Amino acid sequence: MPRVSQAHLDARRQQIVDAARARFASHGFARTSMADIVTESGLSNGAIYRYFTSKDEIVVAVCEQGSEALPKALTAEAVEGFLERVRALARETDHARLVAQIYAEAAVSPSLAAVVRQQLSAMRAAIAALVPDRRRGRAEEIAEAFVAISGGYNQQLAVRGDVDPAPFAAALMAIVNGV
Questions:
Q1: What's the start-to-end Cα distance of the chain, in Å?
Q2: How far, in Å, CA of 179 to CA of 168, rounded?
Q3: pLDDT at position 80, please?
């Protein structure tokens, strides 16, 4: 039997994760079964179970691939651009709904909670590194608030739909600038 390349295996795994992401975003974790993921992916049961032993493993894989395109600086323009990207993802891919699902599931799943905690820690560290020198002594507090408000904005998008990011950007900049 011919060996399958690693690229092929990686592509199949990604196909499963992409299908699960789409299904989770539109139907939630609780209303998505392994059979739904099989259908969404177009693969067989055996193909799915070759890569994942359970839906919980797929949920963790989806979460592990999540990444926030954080701002490159803590300027008004960069923060507004960041929130606009979050808004665009919510419109185009139901990303906000998926993130809301991940947080809810992390509250009851220790393995997923560990992934989410690590991601939040990395986000806080990245934001703290951007804090202007004049506010360096408050970098951890600023980063904590930045991540919390950004997450709150995402939750608002998930529940309320299209929400103007301007008040969130203004609040973030007030925190960054110490106003």
A1: 67
A2: 14
A3: 95
Fold type of domain 6-63: Arc Repressor Mutant, subunit A (1.10.10)
CA distance 137 to 129: 12
Distance CA 177, CA 117 (A): 27
> What is the pTM for the complete model shown?
0.82
Q: Using CA atoms, how far apart are residues 129 and 135, in angstroms rounded to an integer?
A: 11
Alpha carbon distance 153, 178 (integer Å): 20
Closest by Cα among 96, 114, 104, 102 to 153: 96
CB within 8 Å of 104: residues ≥ 6 apart: 29
User: Residue ranges per domain, the chain?
Assistant: 6-63, 67-177
CB 158 within 8 A of CB 96: yes
pLDDT 10s digits, 26-41: 888 889 999 999 999 9
Name residues of the chain where pLDDT drops below 70: 1-2, 66-68
**Residue 58 and residue 54: Cα distance in Å, rounded?**
7
Nearest to 83 by CA among 173, 177, 166: 166
Alpha helices (H) along 42-109: 45-51, 55-65, 76-93, 95-106
